[in-house]
Amino acid sequence: MQDKEEERSLIMVEQKLAKDGFTEDFRVADGRLRPFSSETISYGPEDVTIVDFYRFEGESDPDDMSILYALECADGTRGTISSSYGPTGDTDSLGFLKQVEDLGKNLKKDHK
């Protein structure tokens, strides 16, 4: 049996999401969500749904925080994007995901 901390580690969550079909790794560039596996495919906020998200605090430093988003795109592509959050957050990624939230396309939570 795994303890709660182990279950909530970033690696464990990423492995579970991959088993659930969230296999693409995303980044935000030029205001668009882009899979690392393609230079030509990109998605706007209207094409993306936030299925779930997970927050993590650093083991030794609570200011070392990150967030992992499970995303689904309009064409069925599923994947994840992670970012630091708080004062050191990735403003491009967090800004894009805020636009998705503002469109009401967040927390679908039916991936289980």
Give the secondary structure arrangement, pairings included.
Elements (H helix, E strand, L loop, with lengths): L3 H4 L2 H10 L4 E6 L2 E4 L12 E10 L7 E9 L4 E7 L6 H12 L10
Parallel strand pairs: 1-5
Antiparallel strand pairs: 1-2, 3-4, 4-5
Characterise this structure.
Strand 3 (48-57) and strand 4 form a beta hairpin. The protein is of the alpha+beta class and 112 residues long. It has helices at 4-7, 10-19, 91-102; strands at residues 24-29, 32-35, 48-57, 65-73, 78-84. It has one domain (4-102). The protein contains three helices and five strands, in the order H-H-E-E-E-E-E-H. This is Phosphoribosylpyrophosphate synthetase.
Low-confidence stretches: 1-7
Strand order of the largest sheet: 2-1-5-4-3
Mean pLDDT: 83
Number of domains: 1
Question: Percent helix among the residues?
Answer: 10-25%
What does the radius of gyration come to? 14 Å
N-end to C-end Cα span: 20 Å
Question: Count of helical segments?
Answer: 3
* Overall geometry: globular
What structural category arises from helix and sheet content? alpha+beta
The count of strands amounts to 5
Query: The biggest beta sheet, please?
Result: 5 strands, mixed
Question: In what range is the share of β-strand residues?
Answer: 25-35%
Helix/strand order: HHEEEEEH
Protein name: Phosphoribosylpyrophosphate synthetase
Q: Which properties best describe this structure?
A:
112 residues; alpha+beta; 5-stranded mixed beta sheet; 3 helices; 5 strands; globular
